[in-house]
Description:
Elements: E1 5-13, E2 19-27, E3 32-36, H1 43-50, E4 58-63, E5 66-67, H2 73-79, E6 80-83, H3 94-98, H4 115-124, H5 141-153, E7 159-163, H6 171-186, E8 190-194, E9 206-211, E10 214-217
Parallel strand pairs: 3-8, 3-9, 6-7, 7-8
Antiparallel strand pairs: 1-2, 1-4, 4-5, 9-10
Amino acid sequence: METGMEFVNVSYTWPGGKGLHAVNLAVAPGDFVMIAGPSGSGKSTLLRLAARLEEPESGVIRFQGTPLAEYAPPLLRRRIGFVQQTPVVAEGSVRDNLLLPFGFAVNRGEAKPDDEALRGWLERLALAGVRLEDDARALSVGQRQRLCIIRSLLLRPALLLMDEPTSALDRESRGIVERMAEELNAAGMTVLMVSHSEYCPVAVHRCLTVRDGRVEEAA
């Protein structure tokens, strides 16, 4: 199987001795993978390892056939989008936050979206009432989360990691984000999503369960 991302005997230990143990996982390009499991089981750690925000103690993680450690971090951030459970916004306007990745040297050759395109994304994520000039830190938690999702998508990553992206959203907004994830996957983007909700995308390819430090295919 051609792999978008591959974990080979990957282990990671948290303080106290718990962690992930000998994880072997291959995700094909274009897969939509749902990840479930009890709180504290290691779901978020799995995504953080995939984004190289944590380093494995043993084993290797490959992205598009190349070990993560061989990628320059800025290039990896462009190819792998990561939406955390807790949204992080910088001081400044909504526009400033959305365009933040384009200020990095590695992305300066990328076409910067204009205001019309940015407003289109805001409307798509049910943020039509949010202006580009608004203070990003004054937005609600749910609005900031959707802002972070847009920011992750503007560089068109090949792989999107989503760590409970809808946990702070109401039912309507949650549905919008979930449908958008399905649309992106249908267009070819690989998606790994951690979720505690009962949401299951129509086109889901695989469901994984993380329990006691092990990653298993859900029954």
